[in-house]
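Researcher: Here's my situation. A collaborator sent me these components and asked whether they could plausibly form a single complex. I don't have experimental data yet, so a predicted model of the whole assembly would be a useful starting point for our discussion.
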Amino acid sequence: MKAYSIDFLEEIPKYIQIARHIKNLIELGEIKDEEKLPPIRKLSDFLSVNNDTIVSAYKKLEQEGYAVQKIGSGSYAKQKDTNRRLRREYTETFKRIRNESSSKYIDFAGETSCNVVFPMENFKEVINEVIDRDGVNALVNQETLGYIGLRRSISKYFWNDKSRAEDILIVSGAQQGIDIVSKAIINVNDNVIVEKPTYNGALFVFKWRGANIFEANMENDGINLEAFEKIVKKNSIKCFYTMSYFQNPTGMSYSYAKKIEILKLAEKYDFYIIEDDYLSELIFDEKVKYQSFKSLDENDRVVYIKSFSKIFLPGIRLGYMIVPKKIEEAVESSKVNTDISTSSLMQRALDLYIIKGYWRDYIQNLKITYNKRYKVMEDTIKDILKDKVSFNSPGGGFNFYLKIDKSIGIESDKLFYKCKQKKVFISPGVLFYRNSEDGAKFFRIGYSQTEETKIKQGIEIINKILE
Amino acid sequence: MKAYSIDFLEEIPKYIQIARHIKNLIELGEIKDEEKLPPIRKLSDFLSVNNDTIVSAYKKLEQEGYAVQKIGSGSYAKQKDTNRRLRREYTETFKRIRNESSSKYIDFAGETSCNVVFPMENFKEVINEVIDRDGVNALVNQETLGYIGLRRSISKYFWNDKSRAEDILIVSGAQQGIDIVSKAIINVNDNVIVEKPTYNGALFVFKWRGANIFEANMENDGINLEAFEKIVKKNSIKCFYTMSYFQNPTGMSYSYAKKIEILKLAEKYDFYIIEDDYLSELIFDEKVKYQSFKSLDENDRVVYIKSFSKIFLPGIRLGYMIVPKKIEEAVESSKVNTDISTSSLMQRALDLYIIKGYWRDYIQNLKITYNKRYKVMEDTIKDILKDKVSFNSPGGGFNFYLKIDKSIGIESDKLFYKCKQKKVFISPGVLFYRNSEDGAKFFRIGYSQTEETKIKQGIEIINKILE
C-alpha cells in the first residue's frame, strides 16, 4: 500500500490529488496494466479520507482512461497502451538507427549534429596535445566543478568574462544539469512549472523528485503569461523549466518582453528559472535575437544550463551550468553525490579545441550546412504539405513542429507507425505532453540527421500517408 | 510548512517519525541553524496529531542535540556544528590537495590509485587507435547501455562469459550506479538497510529518494546478522547496500557464510542486494577469497556495481553494473534520464586497453606496489601506535580503520584538525555515521596516495598528537 501514500495539499480537492497520484504510478509503470487497485474501504482507511473521496478519484481515473471498473470485482489500472508501446517503439527505433552505420531510415527524429562532417583530425590533434601536456593528470584528476581551464575558456569565449570561471560548473550534458539542480532545489511536493508541450527527459526528473507539475501552453513568443501568472499567484513555485530558444518540440523562442516579465515574476514570487539553452547557436532568421534569460537576469534567479551535445558532439557528454550564488554549494554537493565529477580528459580536449578556434570554425561550418537544410525543409513543407499541416517558422534550430489539419483523419501516433513502415522516422506529438491526447494532431520533424535530397524524399512519403 | 509534511508509517510512533524527519531536514540544511521550528500548535494542526506528540518530538530532538528550547520563545534548530564544519573542511582539504601538483600534505584520506606511475604511452596508443579505427563514431555515438565492445570485453575478461554483454550497463562511475539504481527501485518511504558505518555518498543518494534508512553494525566478517534479520523481519525492505570487500571505512570483508545467509534472506523477504565492488582486485592476504554476492546469487537478487575509478583512473569516470532482469528496463530508463549515456571515446579506449592486456599488466604492477605499502603501513601502525589504537587487518584494499584507545582523551574530529595543522590528512570516523558521535573514537588512514617513507612520517606525526 505504501506507494499509495500522499502528502495532501490544502488547496486542491483530495480526490483529484488521489487520482493524479495513481495516474502517475500507472504512467511510471509502478502500477501495472490490469493490476487491481485497492478496494475503496481499504484505501480510504489508509489515506484517512471518506469512501466517497476514493469513489470520486476512481471515477476520475476511469474518465481519463486510466482505470476500468469490473462489476462485482473492483477497479483495475489501465495502461495507456498506445502511449507506452509508442514510447518503447520510438526508443527502439532510435537505437536501431544508431547502430546501423549506414541507415536505411530517413531520420527526422534525431536531434544531434552527428551527421555533419566533423574534422576529426583537429580533435585528434588536441587530444594528443593534452596527453603530452598534462600526462596522467588528464586521467586521474577529479574536479567537482570541472577542469579550471575549460571553465576559464567558457567564461572568456562564451561570456566575455561576464560570468566568471568560479561560477561555472561542468556537467556531463544538459540532462545531468537538470538532474543535479533538481536534486539540489526540488523536494517532494514542491511545485514546478513547465511549458506545454515540453521535453520528456525534464518531466522524468521532476517526477523523480516528487514534484507537482503545472503546465501552461507554449505560444509563438513563449509561455502563455496569463496562465503562468495565475499559477504563480496561487501556488508557491520552486522553479520554472524553460527552453528559451527553439523550444522542444514547438521550435518557438521567447520574446524579449516575455523574458523580462517572467524574470520580474521570479523575483516577486521567489522562484528559480531553469533555462535549458540547447540550440541557440543555430539562429538563421535575423529577427531572432539572442538574449538568454541568464544575460537579462539582475536578481540571480536563473539556473543556466548549456548543452554541448546537441550542437557539437553528443558522445563527449559535456555541458555546463551557471547557478545562483545561493544554491551553488547545494548544486556542487549534488554533483559529487551524482557522479563525483565529469571525465577530465574530454574537458581538457574541448578546452584546447575552443582555444585553438576549432570550435568557432566548426560551428560556422555547421551553420552554413544547416541553414541550407533548414530552408529546404521549410520550403518543402510549404510546397508539398501546405494543405495538410500548419506551422510557425522557428527561424533556427533543428525542428519544425507541424499541426495536422483537422480535415485529415489521422493522429500522430498512427502517423508515426505508418511512417516507420516506410522507413521514415518522425516524432509524434503524443510524446511531448503529460496527457498524450493533447499531442494527437502534432508531429515534429527535424533535419539534423538528414541530407537535402532525403529531406525531400521523406516529406513526399509523409505527404502520401497524409493523403 | 510544506517541508514538514510526513507520510506516517503505522509501525513507528509518530513523535519518532516527526523527530527523524526534522533531523533529516536539519542535516540536509533545509532547516538552517538557529531557525525557529514551527510552534507546537501549528505543527500539530498541520500534521493532524496531538500537541503532546509534537512536544515529545521536540524533546527528542533536544536530547539528540538537534534543537534547543528558548523559554517563552519556542524551539530552535541546531546544526551539529562540528560535523557540518568538519565535512566542509574535509572537502576543502581534498580540493586543495588535488589542485596542488606537488602536495605538501601527507595524504592518508585519498582513495584512488592516482599516485602510482601509470604507463601513459599505452593509453595514448589505444586512444589514437580508437580515433583512427572508429573516426567520428567514437565522439557522436550515444549508447544507453554503453559501447558494445567494452561490454563484451567485460563479459569475457572479467566474467568468463558468465554474465553476458547484454546484461552489462556501463555507468560513469560507481556513484552514478548507486544513483540510477536507486531512482529505478527506491521510492519515498521505502526501507533501505546499510552497514554501520558506511559510505556517505550512498547515504546521500538514499536520502534523496526519501528512503527510511536502517543500519546494523559492520563486524569483522560482514554485517551483524542478528540485527539485520530483525530489521528484515519487521520491515518490508527494498534493498540492502553493501560493500562486500574492504568495506568503506572498516576495511572488513564478508565471509562466505554471511553472504549465503543474506542471499537467502533476500529471496525469502524479497529485497535486492546492491553490491558495491570497488576494490576487490587488491586482495593481499590469501585468506581473503574473492566471491562476490553476484557470483553466488541464484535468484537474481543482486545489483552488482563495479567501479573502475578506485583501482584504475578516477578521471575517466567509468564503471559498470549488472542488474536483475526484472529491473533492467527501469534502470536503463533511469540512465537515459540521468545523463543519456557515458562518454563513448573513453569506453572505446578502455575496451582496447583491456583487450591488449594493458589492464592486466597495470593491475599486476599496482598490486606489487600497493602490497609493499600495505605492509609498511600495517607494520608501522603495529610498531608505533600499538598502545594507542586497535584495529583488524583488512587483508587488502587501501585503508586501515583504527579505534583510538579509551585511555586517550581525543576524539576523531579533534584529531583531524590537529593532524591537518601538521599537514597530515586523515578521515575522522564521524564522517561515516548517521549519528556522528558513533564515530568519535575511530579514524581511517590509507596509503593509496602516499609513498612508503611518507607513510612512516605521517604515522609518527599522528603518534605525537595522540601522545
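Model: Some features of this prediction you could bring to your collaborator: Chain B has 17 helices and 16 strands. Chain B touches chain A through 65 residues (CB under 8 Å).
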